[in-house]
Structures are given as C-alpha cells and as structure tokens.
Amino acid sequence: MREIHSALIVGAGAIGAAVASRIFDIDKAAVALCATGERRERYIREGFIVNGRRYFFPLADPTPRKPYDLVIVAVKSYHLALAIEEMRPYVAPGTIIISLLNGIASEEILRAEFRTASIPLAVIISIDALRVGNRIDFESAGEIRFGLEKNDPKALDDDVAAVARFFARHGVQYSIPENMVKALWFKFMINVAMNQWSALLRGSYLFFQKSASARELVAATMREVIALSDALGKGLVQEDVATVFATTDRLNGNGRTSMLQDVDALRKTEVDIFAGVIVEKARECGVPVPINEFLLLSIKAIEEGYGL
Question: What percent of the chain has pLDDT over 70?
C-alpha cells in the first residue's frame, strides 16, 4: 500500500497557503513551499499570517536530493509555465501531481510535461480565502475533489487512495466523485458565471446571495455552460444551477471571488480560461453563448483600463 509522506505546494497564494496551513498544523515536516529568488527571500523574512497565526513554512531545498511524493499546484493559470519549470526538479516517476488551478486544461498541460507522473483530475470548491500581502483569511477551507475521470468507490486507484489517506491524516477536506469530469466542469461553471459577474458588478458573495437580478445573470450564464457541456458530453444538467447556488450561498458573505480580488488589485484576470474558453469551444460546436461573449469583452476592457 502506497503512503505519501511529503507534499510540495507550488503557489503560495490564498489557496496554496490555506492548504499548506492545514497540513502544517498536523505535521510540520510533511509540507514545504516551492519558491525561488525574491519570493524565497520574502517568505523567509515575512512568512505568512493565516487566520491571524504566523507561519514560517519549510521551503523546498533548491538542490533537492529526493523528489516529493505529492505536488499540489495552486498558481494562476497564466503562471503555470513558470510553475512547471520551478517544480520540475522535485518531480520523479510516480510523483502524484494535484492541480488546483481554475479552468479545464491544467491537467492536460501537466500530463504533457510530466509523462511519468501520476496526475488525476482535481478542483477545490467552496473556499472563501482572501489574500492581502502575506495575510490570508478564510472561514471555509473548502473541499478538494479529485480522482481519475471515473472512480469506483469500492475499487479506488492506488494513487488516488494514497492521496485520500494523506488528506485524511492532515485535516484536508476532500471527496472523490464517481464522475470527475463532471465535477471539473461543475467548478468551471461556477468560475465562468460567478467569478466573471462578480468582477464586472464588483459584488461580494453577499451581493449574489441577496440580489435577485444578479442571481438571474449568473443563472443565465450557467445555462450557456450547460448547453456547451451537453454538446461536448461533459455531464452537466439544468439541476446543477440550483446546486451551485446552494454551494455559494453557504460562503461567507464578505468573501470575494478570486477574479474580483484580481480586478480590485489591478491584476491580470483569468478571463481567457473562463469566457475565452467557452467562446472558443462554443464556436467549434455551434452553440450560441452571447453572455460569455459580452463578459469576455467587458472584462478585457476592465483590464485595459488599469492605470488610465
């Protein structure tokens, strides 16, 4: 039976630091951050403050003598290429890589780069972490959903089962959906609808919990994703709209989506992997997605206005 003893976190933003803190609280030796150059110096000097507690997480040896059992990637999609190069020395045949990136393409990219690694599908859902500088605050640490494309709970893949045992030992909430492709698209639908409208309307979770008009905009956007999912056979159904709202309605109302945090901080957003991907795939399938076409142009216009 395979056991995981060491985890490397690549990307110490809100999600990466939140996951690292959960593992570190149980076993300080079980987790390390991947960091080089100025970031490494800053992490050593300042550490992180997670929910009011200061952490100085171990940092991976720049000249590793052995690879890590598990690598958890939690960077923005447009930083994935850099993350791949930084994590490459720590990956060996059999290393398990869990990608918590938004979008639906990161596993495909990682599988092409690390052909001998084990790379299941994964998402993190219902996390409400906010990051300002080195301070990360959250009420809900969320749940990591992961597994092969199809999973039999009575006969799990050995690597999937090993990750599950590691998460269970270290207080990381997880689940293993039987249909992981649908789970990936479910999270994608939340990002495409909630994240993008929150960035455009500047709305917190409370706004989308209370505003009937905002909820209808989100629902209409989700229906476009469901139509595309139906054309591509990804498994989403109309009933998933209510499930999304049931999920987001439980989040801290003061919380903000990652895209709203990006816009507030004048950072590049992930609109290209949300509306951009929807529009591209919809054109290939002949599925009309006028709302996502509007969102794509609107959010790009916001980015183009930074600093003007």
Answer: 100
